[in-house]
Amino acid sequence: MIAFRHFTKTFASHPAVRDLSLEIGGAEVVALLGPNGSGKTTTLKAAAGLIRPTSGDVLIGEPGRPAGDPGAREALSFLPQRVAFPESLTGREVIEFYRRLRGVDRDAADAALKLASLNGSSGRAIATYSGGMVQRLGLAVALLPSAPVMLLDEPTAALDPDGLCAFYSVIEHRKAAGQTILFTSHQLGDAERLADRFAILVDGRLAALLTARELSDRLASRGVLRLRVEHEPADLLNRVRRLSPEATQSGDQLIVPGPAGTRPAVVDLVRESGASILGLTAEEGRLDVFYRDLVGGRS
Ligand SMILES: Nc1ncnc2c1ncn2[C@@H]1O[C@H](COP(=O)(O)OP(=O)(O)OP(=O)(O)O)[C@@H](O)[C@H]1O
Ligand SMILES: [Mg+2]
After folding, report:
1. Ligand 2 mean position to 133 CA, how many Å?
2. 14 CA to middle of ligand 1, Å?
3. What is the rounded distance in angstroms from the CA atom of residue 37 to the CA atom of residue 150?
4. Which residues of the chain are in CATH 3.30.70 domains?
5. Does 82 sit in the ligand 1 pocket, CB within 6 Å?
6. Is it the case that residue 96 has pLDDT exceeding 60?
7. pTM for the model
8. What is the signed CA dihedral for 174, 178, 184, 186, rounded to 10 degrees?
9. For ligand 1, is residue 185 a contact (CB within 6 Å)?
């Protein structure tokens, strides 16, 4: 369990997180989303006990202990947004160090090394690793203990497609085993694939707390259909606007915002008008548009 109760963090006079109340139960995966600087890392660091709340409380585990207390730290594992290890150590030595620190058995360390997928480089000094290899080692270290609470700050930022698959599968197993996971991401795909709920921070405030279903409904209503057309009648755009008032035309492209459900009717209308459709793409709502909606108070 992770509980934020009126959590506020102010740096100098700048409020990074304001009055956040959020409770995350066992076997739940929550994605913390929001634009750059919206307070996601500050929130995770407070849960990890690395920074103290200016006001309010952050509790970890069952029973809830204040973040930063030894019992709370023992119950969690934290992946920082920027990992750093002593450059002269090898990947294997780093895993071994954390294995002993967290009292984990050797099998788990082997699994972590596999996840880090250092491709024969686990005996080389970290100074010689690529940026992605260091991030992957960080993720492997964070996933080493089966702590009840996992805090992952942009775990997928440096992962290639193979790494992403391996990560998704580890998280699904951990969730099935009852772990509570709070992670941040800028990738909608990660969030939709993994999370049960979405907490969206904008400017340090919890702007929305949605279930997976609610988020996909909101995003679907902000999708865009693009059609490349030719031989269209002069009034085609006006006709399309009866179905989607925000439709626009740019050259041979018709841009039709709106929910996915209206798209078949738009395509039928364009065809029946005598126009030829040369190409068609559809895009679901994007997070940046969603954040702007939240800021604009339209949500
Ligand atoms: N140690 C600090 N001292 C002063 N200001 C800070 C500190 N840490 C964070 N901030 C400020 O707090 C705000 C929130 O930062 P935070 O790192 O939590 O954002 P974030 O949502 O994680 O952003 P990103 O998506 O870029 O990682 C920012 O305005 C940032 O400048
Ligand atoms: Mg951050």
Report:
1. 20
2. 10
3. 22
4. 223-283
5. no
6. yes
7. 0.86
8. 60
9. no
pLDDT digits (tens, 9 = 90+) for 125-150: 999 999 889 999 999 999 999 999 99
At residue 183, does pLDDT exceed 90?
Answer: yes
Mean pLDDT of the chain: 92
Query: Over 50: is that where the pLDDT of 298 sits?
Result: no
pLDDT band at 297 (very low <50, low <70, confident <90, very high): low
Ligand 1 pocket test: which of 8, 10, 11 has the largest number of ligand atoms within 8 Å of its C-beta? 11
Domain 223-283 has CATH 2.30.30: no
Q: Which residue has 């000094």 as its token pair? A: 125
**Residue extent(s) of CATH 3.40.50.300 domains in the chain:** 2-213
What architecture (CATH level 2) is domain 2-213? 3-Layer(aba) Sandwich (3.40)
How many A from CA of 179 to the centre of ligand 2? 22
Q: How far apart are the first and last CA of the chain?
A: 28
Q: Which two tokens stand for residue 75?
A: 């119950």
Residues 67-91: b if buried by 16+ CB within 10 A, e if exposed: bbeeebbbbbbbbbbebebeeeebb
